[in-house]
Automatic annotation (TrEMBL):
<keyword id="KW-0479">Metal-binding</keyword>
<dbReference type="GO" id="GO:0005789">
    <property type="term" value="C:endoplasmic reticulum membrane"/>
</dbReference>
<keyword id="KW-1133">Transmembrane helix</keyword>
<dbReference type="GO" id="GO:0015012">
    <property type="term" value="P:heparan sulfate proteoglycan biosynthetic process"/>
</dbReference>
<dbReference type="InterPro" id="IPR003406">
    <property type="entry name" value="Glyco_trans_14"/>
</dbReference>
<keyword id="KW-0333">Golgi apparatus</keyword>
<keyword id="KW-0328">Glycosyltransferase</keyword>
<dbReference type="GO" id="GO:0046872">
    <property type="term" value="F:metal ion binding"/>
</dbReference>
<feature type="transmembrane region" description="Helical">
    <location>
        <begin position="411"/>
        <end position="431"/>
    </location>
</feature>
<comment type="similarity">
    <text>Belongs to the glycosyltransferase 14 family. XylT subfamily.</text>
</comment>
<dbReference type="GO" id="GO:0030158">
    <property type="term" value="F:protein xylosyltransferase activity"/>
</dbReference>
<keyword id="KW-0325">Glycoprotein</keyword>
<dbReference type="InterPro" id="IPR043538">
    <property type="entry name" value="XYLT"/>
</dbReference>
<feature type="domain" description="WSC">
    <location>
        <begin position="37"/>
        <end position="133"/>
    </location>
</feature>
<comment type="pathway">
    <text>Glycan metabolism; heparan sulfate biosynthesis.</text>
</comment>
<comment type="pathway">
    <text>Glycan metabolism; chondroitin sulfate biosynthesis.</text>
</comment>
<dbReference type="InterPro" id="IPR002889">
    <property type="entry name" value="WSC_carb-bd"/>
</dbReference>
Amino acid sequence: MEFKNYEEKEEINCFLLKNNLAISAISRINTNFCKQFIKSKLCEINNYWPIEKIENNCEEYFENSPEFCIQKCLNSGFSFAGVGFGVNCYCFNYLIDKNENIVNENLCNFYVCPGKENEFCGGNGTLFVYKTGIKDKQTKILPKFIPYNGKSSLNKIKILFLLQLNGRDYLQIRRLLGMIYSQKHFYFVHVDSRQQFLYSEMLKIQKEFEIKGFFNFKVLRKRFATIWGGTSLLELFLFVINQSIFELEIKWDYIINLSEKDMPLLSLEELEKQLEKKRFATIWGGTSLLELFLFVINQSIFELEIKWDYIINLSEKDMPLLSLEELEKQLENFSNKSYLSSHGYNTASFLNKQGFNFHFLECEKRMWRVAKRNDFPLNLRLDGGSDWLIIHRDLAEYSVSTEDLPSNLRLLFTTILLPLESFFHTVWFFIKRYFGENIQKNFCSNFIIF
């Protein structure tokens, strides 16, 4: 997240500063800079997305209308929306015996919609039901493992590994590199800004590679405090995509993020084999950990012009259970597909558990809960799951592009807890008709976490 120069004496006032969460957070912040930053962002938040939060219950909405209810249910991932008793909005995924439960429309024309007086919002025990545009629950596409026989060529797949490192266990990181390193892939290393020892050790490793004539291992000089749940995780991821594609022009197919605790279960060749399968044409294009991720993408692609296919993020605790060849093989078999593990299909429950109903802001190397969220964008289906993911280059490029959708989503996710666990899922869900299906698999299952 970028910080501007907030003046300590600057007077900032808006109604959101009066809520209990904001008052509590500001009272506990140490620096005047951070106090002003939080105040300023709070006053901006109300203007981001002027749509109220969604709850799947029988709460009374005094601005209720068919359009209002449809937006509520669409954002929470439901297939149908129903208005009844004037002020109630119902969300559901299935219609039971729909033909037998259809009644005369006049029975629904009883309660006038409080949000639109020229429309009706159901009757006594009857609902007006509308489709939201979300399809019924679909079968997940699970990858079929194809062993690598050592004969076929794996030169088609290029992976960008993003290693997100913390702690001091540099020996574990060397073991990890021994399993996933190949001259044909690319390795971007981010070390938490608070870890100077590990940072110096990674610079030594980079120098070792360069002495041998290998320049595909780069330690990022731009560093983030990658706190748990911080927006910097997503910001990092998107930064890496931007950097690698548009500045360094690296031609990679997939990006895979790993930590220092990961250990691959597949060999690199097997991973490549899975990613290689079913290649098809897609359109071009597509906030601390997210900021880092995006920084690496930007730098590797646009500055260094590295030609990678996938980006994988790793930490200092990661150790692969697959060899590098097995990993490459798996990626090769499912070429052009990204690996995104979803929470399931009850999006409303996920949004509640994930804290989407609150605004969070990152400052002083922690996340502050500053306000309740009353706004989601129109026509947006939110989604999320695990931040153990492998992102293909096509989706990576689109996520850091200047098009309206990814640009607005990047802004929205600067105020969301654990943004890396939902940003790419949401981007992909919105434009999957262009990018095809993803692979519903938790990438973490291919690694041992220490």
